[in-house]
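Protein: Glutamate 5-kinase
Species: Corynebacterium riegelii
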Amino acid sequence: MAGVGVLELREQIASARRIVVKLGTSSLVDADGNLDARKIDLIVDAIEKRIARGTDVIVVSSGAIAAGMAPLGLKVRPRDLATKQAAASVGQIHLAQVWGASFARYGRTIGQVLLTQSDAGSRERARNAQRTIDRLRQMGAVPIVNENDTVATSEMRFGDNDRLSAIVATLISADALVLLSDVDGLYDMNPSDPRARLLDEVRSGKDLEAVKAGDGGVFGTGGMAAKVSAARLAARGGVPVLLTATEKITEALGSAEVGTVFHTRPGRKLSAWKFWALYAADAEGVLRLDAGAVSAVTSGGTSLLAVGITGIEGEFHAGDIVEILGPDSAVVGRGEVAYDAVELATMLGQHTHELPEHLRRPVVHADYLSNYASRL
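Structure follows.
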């Protein structure tokens, strides 16, 4: 996509054959925080128009906790984990029923896909989720994806459904991600300020240096900062993003001539494996490197050898994903380790020729090493 202009990118999003549409809680509830069937019907109307054009649509929907609050008599969003999970267990049923009833007006079936960070963190489970979503699409059903808040712990969560939507978009090789909320695009400051300026496009982090993005609203958890982070995450995985307001969903799924678009970087797309390793996988241990090894692995195309490793942490096994840190404990990247922790402990700081012959392969091969130097 070298040299792609903003208008051309919008045309690509408008004609994308497989898209992920993410909806925040505020887009689905009324002023009292209850699910608003009328709002959801308008959303489904726009999605159906896009489907009629031959596009596969996967929905990432927030709202489970909010949907469970009223039935449980909760007036404010719960803060403790147990009550959140209780609200989600009630709300997931109600949310699926409302989505199902709305799509049923068009004779279409939905399928609910509930994911946790640990699902995405396991390569096998991530592939299973991908296959489920693909099969639902092939059978004409609309996948409705949400984080499984009923079982996810505070330590093992995506954090918000914006990040989940970015991971899903890359997982299924979507052609575009549409992030919808209550703001019509990315502004350089609070949109209520008359001096605020809407950004038409974001090509790199340099375009965001003067932007001040805030936190979530009364019912949501994401906020603009989370949406920008998710948009950049998807772009790193090669998925262009359109960010706008839910009230503009017809235009967003039509001409795409609204909101802010986020470009992918020509020649900088991460492979599916490297994206998963960096942003979704569970790390089972830590490798600490000296400065020379950090310089080597961040330059690209270089495998990590035992001589540059100064320490290890964790009880990892060959084939596990490990976090790679520099001498100052800064995160360098991640990779798939070729040795068990016990075996690797005997190899630290040694040159390859000093090791027994069966231990002379790289600790992390270049093909299975991904560093954060490649970020936008």
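Remarks: Residues 216-222 have pLDDT under 50 and may be disordered.
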